[in-house]
Amino acid sequence: MYRDILIPTDGSDASVTALDHGMEIASNMGAKVHLLHVVDVGTEMSASAVGDIANDLTETLDEEAEEALDQAEQMADEAGVTSERAILEGFPEDAIPQYSADSRIDLIVIGESEDSTFTEQLFGSTTEDVLESVTTSVLVARE
């Protein structure tokens, strides 16, 4: 039923919950997982006018992306699941649906934290934005 499963990850507890669910589904179905980290350009742009701070922030964000994907890839290996990793720059709410369409994803497994920030309450979360933007099946894994 599912051959290609997308699991966006940022290294958060909610992402780890999504990885747990996604790996179990992939293992049971013999599916491949696509591990995606989106470097949020909104975060990068907020520091872009500050010179050296922008370079340090970009380096930190790149390191965080690699660490999150290393963790996800290790989970895939331990589950015996084939994986592919990708890092994109952009807004997660745009990059996740685009990657899903480009890669012909059958299922997106995305984490959602019960602790929402004021900004998420006001504008909505990435998870909500993805749900509204895709025609693919989505499993929301709550931590």
TrEMBL record:
CDD domains: USP-like. Residues 1-142 form the UspA domain. Pfam families: Usp. The keyword Protein biosynthesis does not apply. PANTHER family: STRESS RESPONSE PROTEIN NHAX (PTHR46268), UNIVERSAL STRESS PROTEIN UP12 (PTHR46268:SF6). Belongs to the universal stress protein A family. This is UspA domain-containing protein. It comes from Halopiger xanaduensis (strain DSM 18323 / JCM 14033 / SH-6). The lineage of its organism: Archaea, Methanobacteriati, Methanobacteriota, Stenosarchaea group, Halobacteria.
